[in-house]
From TrEMBL:
Annotated source species: Cladocopium goreaui
Skewed-composition ranges (Low complexity): 229-238
Transmembrane segments: 167-192
Signal sequence annotation: 1-22
Keyword Transmembrane helix in annotation: yes
Region (Disordered): 207-238
Name of the protein in its database record: Uncharacterized protein
Keywords of the record: Membrane, Signal, Transmembrane, Transmembrane helix
Length: 238
């Protein structure tokens, strides 16, 4: 009887976990909708979509023996990866919405060119930039906003979202600062240290003072000797 209860409890926990897995938060959903309806995002996204379409079509034409971009079909495709990292979208996203990430997807996976892949800039809203929401974000975007996309931009079923870690940036900055400090040490020594001159002996301040005192004593001695000689000469003349 006790074993049956434990089994029921474990089954309930498993069902609860399965039902909540992949669910995004309400805050994430709302922020995603606001971003997708923002005029600035829509303008930059339109530019990115047209630019990426050209890159993807050109890539497909060179990597497939037979390429039919309009129908999403290709034969003997190899190494077909189009890089569509849009700098304007990266800047807009990082400054106003959240974090610019990269989504890897196969736009023609179902239509007949499964080896063709595209890497696109994808803006993750700040409210979605956490583990559970990020895991469910692409599924939410692919299913809930499919009516806003068409053609090569429609399929997000095989999409994978990749976001850079926030720890890498500070580490890189720290390494660069340390390297600059270490590089400045020998440069400072070279610039501020007086170069040695050949044939010249450097003396200390005490040695200079002692030398000056000896010169003064010599001058006084010479002056005293001259006065005595002059006096004796004058007396001899008389």
């Amino acid at each position: 009887m006790c074993m049956m209860r434990w089994r029921r409890m474990l089954l309930a926990v498993a069902l609860l976990t399965a039902s909540t897995r992949g669910q995004d938060s309400i805050q994430c959903r709302n922020s995603l909708v606001e971003m997708l309806r923002d005029p600035n995002w829509m303008h930059v996204n339109n530019s990115q979509t047209r630019w990426c379409r050209l890159r993807l079509e050109n890539t497909m034409a060179t990597c497939c023996r037979i390429a039919n971009f309009a129908d999403g079909k290709g034969e003997d495709c190899s190494g077909c990866t189009a890089l569509c990292l849009h700098q304007n979208m990266i800047t807009l996203c990082n400054q106003h919405f959240g974090q610019a990430c990269v989504v890897r997807r196969k736009p023609f996976f179902k239509t007949g060119a499964p080896d063709v892949e595209v890497h696109e800039t994808f803006c993750v809203p700040q409210e979605c930039n956490n583990g559970p929401d990020r895991d469910a974000l692409i599924s939410r975007y692919g299913a809930s906003f499919a009516t806003d996309r068409f053609g090569w931009h429609l399929d997000y079923n095989e999409a994978v979202l990749e976001c850079p870690s926030g720890v890498i940036g500070p580490i890189i900055v720290t390494v660069v600062v340390i390297a600059c400090i270490l590089l400045c040490i020998p440069i400072s020594i070279f610039l501020f240290k007086a170069p040695k001159e050949r044939g010249r002996t450097l003396i200390s301040q005490e040695q200079m003072q002692a030398e000056s005192m000896r010169e003064d004593d010599d001058l006084r001695g010479a002056g005293a000797g001259g006065d005595t000689l002059g006096s004796s000469g004058m007396q001899a003349t008389r």
